[in-house]
Amino acid sequence: MQTIDWDLAVATGVRLARPGPQVSLADARQAVRELRELSVTAQRHVREFTRMESLEEAGSAEIVDRPGWIRANVEGFRVVLEPLLKRMQGNRGDSAPNALTSFAASVGSRVTGVQLGGVLAYLSGRVLGQYELFLPPDPDGKAPTGRLTLVAPNIVMVERDLKVDPHDFRLWVCLHEETHRTQFTAVPWLRPYVQEQMGEFILASDLDPAAFMDRLRDITDTVADAVRGEGDSGSNLITAIQSPAQREILDRLTAVMSLVEGHGDYVMDAVGPGVVPTVATIRARFQQRRQATTRFDRAIRQLLGVDLKMKQYAEGAAFVRHVVAAAGMDGFNQVWSSPATLPSREEIQQPHRWVARVIGPAGELPAANA
């Protein structure tokens, strides 16, 4: 069963991706070289501040352009989705397809491939970096289990738009992204936990694979309605494919992603003043840029749930600040002890409840040390 034409997704995304900023060859090489160096510098700052030690050797980040980011993300989607959709099909005991259903599946896979490519083309112009959790397995078991990528043209574009110091902005971005690499390489159970929750979310769908893919293909109509200002203003891609049984799982995923993103923001801004002289200017201008969007951007952000994510990440950063202030960095780091010590969605919003559950009464808190 082929549910998505992955090659077409890549081809569509690369074709639709907008070109990056005009940069001379010398400036491009300098940006790539500096980003690699700063990613290593950021590792040291992040690990000293968070007191988290990676269990894997971590070299410099992988520096990519927009097509490179698209290819990496299609591969990540494929690693996660393909085996799960096959399991969905098997769980429902689908009979052997006939020629008609095979033709329909082929057409559907191409439509979905085009749509996935279109979404990734849009995002490829906005993502500054990411830690790739889902890589194809290495037969020799020697390759790292994840990969940190920085999208050089986007970083250069944003630093120009904001009119900020390039070196400072690049280090600021690296601090955030290196925090994610540290989280997932210092906490061995975190990656499989996230993958397990994602798998449970998809397998808990009350749809068969064909209906599931039909929901995904509704993205085209949803985008068009949003751009015209029509349709349900509260709809987004996640709620479109969600069944009632998936809500509890989604709450767990939301909580853990709010935690890791909020932790990244907290570390970025806490370390920043000591190593990024213009951090206050960068943060202020970055926030202004984030809020100034076009109507089309707002439609896409709504569809993908980006605005909801921004709110959740802000809550995650507030959670980290509260816990570190109350219990110190060592107290906060108890969050990484096991899945049982992760905050719930309610605890993200009310961090004192997490402190009471995991740390204990206020009289037993360690002195704040961060």
Average of per-residue pLDDT values: 80
Number of strands: 3
The parts where pLDDT drops under 50 for at least 5 residues are 95-107, 365-370
CATH fourth-tier homologous superfamily of the domain at 1-89 and 102-186: Zincin-like metallopeptidase, N-terminal domain
Helical run tally: 16
Which structural class matches the secondary elements? mainly alpha
Output the strand order for the largest sheet. Answer: 1-3-2
CATH fold category name of the domain at 1-89 and 102-186:
Lysin
Question: Main sheet, how many strands, which sense, barrel?
Answer: 3 strands, mixed
Strand content: under 5%
Radius of gyration: 21 Å
Name the overall outline: globular
State the name of the first-level CATH class of the domain at 1-89 and 102-186. Answer: Mainly Alpha
Helix content: 55-70%
At CATH level 2, the architecture of the domain at 1-89 and 102-186 is: Up-down Bundle
Keywords: Hydrolase
GO molecular function: hydrolase activity
Organism: Allonocardiopsis opalescens
Protein name: Putative hydrolase/coenzyme F420 biosynthesis associated uncharacterized protein
